[in-house]
Amino acid sequence: MLSEFDLIKEYFQRPHHATRAALGIGDDCALIAPTPGMQTAISSDMLVEGRHFFAGEDPLRLGHKALAVNLSDLAAMGARPVGFTLALALPEANRAWLQGFSQGLFALADAFNIELIGGDTTKGPLNICITVFGELRPGQALRRSAARAGDDIWISGTLGDARLALAGYRLELPQPLEAADQRAAAVRMHTPTPRVELGVLLAEQGLAHAAIDISDGLIGDLGHILKLSKVGATLNVDALPAGDVLATQGIGLRRAYTAAGGDDYELCFTAPIASREAILAVADSVGTQVTRVGSITAESGLRLIDANGAALDLKLSSFDHFTS
Amino acid sequence: MLSEFDLIKEYFQRPHHATRAALGIGDDCALIAPTPGMQTAISSDMLVEGRHFFAGEDPLRLGHKALAVNLSDLAAMGARPVGFTLALALPEANRAWLQGFSQGLFALADAFNIELIGGDTTKGPLNICITVFGELRPGQALRRSAARAGDDIWISGTLGDARLALAGYRLELPQPLEAADQRAAAVRMHTPTPRVELGVLLAEQGLAHAAIDISDGLIGDLGHILKLSKVGATLNVDALPAGDVLATQGIGLRRAYTAAGGDDYELCFTAPIASREAILAVADSVGTQVTRVGSITAESGLRLIDANGAALDLKLSSFDHFTS
């Protein structure tokens, strides 16, 4: 039987290549030395089996996704990732599972050059709690409360394929997807790409005002910006960039899943009109598509319009972990 | 039905009395401004129902304990607490439970003047994951690897009452405890006291070398210090300070539960002989009992002795979350 200490040593303790962490795994606390003059950004996300992922989910994809959704929060703040802790409850210490999970986790960590600096393992219903740390210069954070009337609303990447894949798995679609389409859409659901470089550059270059990552559906998440910034918005639903598979579906599904899909982990940010060219240049430099989809208004409320500028009345709602 | 946002707002979002946090709950990340020149200490602990606490546990006590075990890790490092995040999976958004839990949590947070700066809530089997942040001056951390031959071994407070209470609940005792004794011992199990002030002063005044908090039983936890410091120890088992209730029990139980009980959340630290008087003065100043219980030796291995200095061969083992 694999003990807790063997488990940590075998799967999660790696040669200490610390430039950041003064002390990593193996003591009561990890120690990090903050870069002088920088603020620390912190976010914590918990993923529960049967809620955030299917029972029996491929552990490699799960390792990626658990870290990706946390990095996405740093991206939405414009913070540069530094490290993370992992607390993990497992029904059993299964080697194949741990091998896959740690591989998926560290592949993404290495892509961003960040370290696992500490955490906890215990027996229990599968639960993954990651806390990430990032750094940014005071005053540069992309806060939800910073949108201003007249700002453009931008979306990174494309929306809705993750929701489409979920609908496919759940047999909710009017007609099932082709197997290849289901697989392609599922890649967006299982292995989201945190838009870290884009968020960091938008913050460092002072190009954007407010930002949020789209996890519960664009309309709900944009709603947080509107509420905290005390502004409204006009959103062109037909301008929302649909994922490759969703783009081949009918307009009803496209509108619903781009506007209120969920699990996208793209950035929604607002920026002054004067930033347009610089934003396109920055997005191009990091290879991320960005699309203008509406404007922030002084008048409160969210107005949805179609390609012709006519009002759209979509019956959509945001995902909530306790009411849905 | 209480939504996720209402839940956070109603039970976990408090008037922002931030001296530390530049930005608290309600954005993608929390922001903290590290004190210039200080290191950040980070620890994460996950508590699972049925594993770390009984199903149906009083939520007020649980709120206290979940934060206390994390603060205990900061104490063992000698770091001054700054704030924490809370990720919480709940089977349902039950108001009475949330009321009690948040009350227990914030009572302890207020006692240490620290803030809840962010986190996550979701539906799922009850799981509490707290990540704490503290600060300390570079070079002052009480590391597990820092024990030196000739050091005294010290214990804060008393040991074993938590384990005695658990044995009482499990009907494992040769004869049941009196109801009043069971209740008194259970206080130590349910509401441990993190030795934060003691740990911080030992570190700040440079009085101790190594430290660890005793969560899995003294022998196992001291074993981590010995292994990482590449030293051995002689431990006088009969000098171990027993909890008030355990002190009334027979010598077999006393030895077993002080030496390898678990859930004590006292500090075990090593310090040079020259520090003795200063340690007693510091402990007195914060109202915490400390007891010398042995010595660190250059020779490896842990030797248990009794009050007369004779070798003791206790068949004890440390608690492990995957093998027990």
Short description:
The structure is a homodimer of 324-residue chains. Chain A is 33% helix and 24% strand. The first copy, chain A, has helices at 4-12, 59-77, 95-111, 161-169, 179-190, 196-204, 218-229, 251-260, 276-285; strands at 21-23, 30-32, 39-48, 80-90, 115-123, 127-136, 152-156, 211-214, 232-236, 266-271, 290-297, 301-305.
The chain-level mean pLDDT of chain A equals 91
Measured by residues with Cβ under 8 Å of the partner chain's Cβ, the largest interface is:
A-B, 73 and 72 residues
Count every helix of chain A, treating DSSP H or I runs of 4 or more residues as helices. 9
Mind telling me the CATH superfamily name of the largest domain in chain A? PurM-like C-terminal domain
Instruction: Categorize the overall geometry of chain A.
Output: globular
Tally of distinct domains of chain A: 2
H/E series of chain A, N to C? HEEEHEHEEEHHHEHEHEHEE
> Which CATH top level class of the largest domain in chain A fits?
Alpha Beta
What is the beta-strand fraction of chain A?
A: 15-25%
Task: Quickly give the structural class of chain A.
Answer: alpha+beta
In whole angstroms, the N-to-C terminal distance of chain A is 39 Å
Binding site for ATP (chains A, B): 119-120, 144, 215
Catalytic activity (chains A, B): thiamine phosphate + ATP = thiamine diphosphate + ADP
Domain PurM-like N-terminal (chains A, B): 26-135
Organism (chains A, B): Duganella rivi
